[in-house]
């Protein structure tokens, strides 16, 4: 065998080995990317399902239920080719298709939640933050158009205000039932302040009028009760400060 042929065989062998290595790297990279996409789609499906099931009944509308159903369905259809062996995916997609086909007649079974504690309010706030995140992501993935995304983000901001109003109203009414006009007045006052600091307080005029009437009643009732000590700590003075602070997630709007 001539030296030239031997050299040619060696070079060919090296080329084949390099080609195999490159192909293996490409295959491995593709597999890793598929695994990443599969994990992300699965996680977002789970989060949409959790939002659909966990949102308080007083905030869950047919339109919101339909939105979450369609978002989860779109994610599932993208996931199906990447996760064909998943035994629960096809039945879930079938249920989502059936629910989405009902349109605005979609069934809403979420139970109302009476928001009376700060922990409840924070838990609902986290749901709203996740809903915001899902809408922004869906818009970036062209699953939801920009006009609709902006409309839903505005709606989430309104729901956040209503959450504060409901919380302070409930705390105030509970305080009145317990005979604490002072605590009730503070709660109603916090609710009034929260509405007035909004960029569009006129949108909440009905809620503001109700809080002002409750505040006036509690204020008059307080005059007949012993005044609290000036240095008496107030839970309401500290309550929900984290909820009323400027939230980072609100800055991630769609423009």
Helix/strand-derived category reads: mainly alpha
Q: Give the strand tally.
A: 0
The overall pLDDT average reads 87
Question: What gyration radius follows from the Cα positions, in whole Å?
Answer: 28 Å
What does the largest sheet look like?
A: none
* Helical content (DSSP H or I, runs of 4+): over 70%
> What are the secondary-structure elements, in order, as H or E?
HHHHHHHHH
How many separate domains make up the residues?
2
Question: Total number of helical segments?
Answer: 9
Task: Give the termini distance in whole angstroms.
Answer: 71 Å
Overall geometry: elongated
Range of strand content = under 5%
Residue runs with pLDDT of under 50 for 5 or more positions = none
Describe this structure in words.
The protein is elongated. The relative contact order is 0.08. The mean pLDDT is 87. By secondary structure, the chain is mainly alpha-helical. The protein folds into two domains: 12-111; 114-255, no CATH class. Helix content is 71%, strand content 0%. The longest helix has 52 residues, at 3-54. Residues 241-255 have a biased composition (Basic and acidic residues). This is DNA repair protein. Residues 220-255 are annotated as: Disordered.
Concise overview:
The protein is mostly helical and 255 residues long. It has helices spanning 3-54, 62-79, 89-100, 118-140, 146-177, 181-196, 205-223, 235-238, 241-244.
SSE inventory with pairings:
Layout: H1 3-54, H2 62-79, H3 89-100, H4 118-140, H5 146-177, H6 181-196, H7 205-223, H8 235-238, H9 241-244
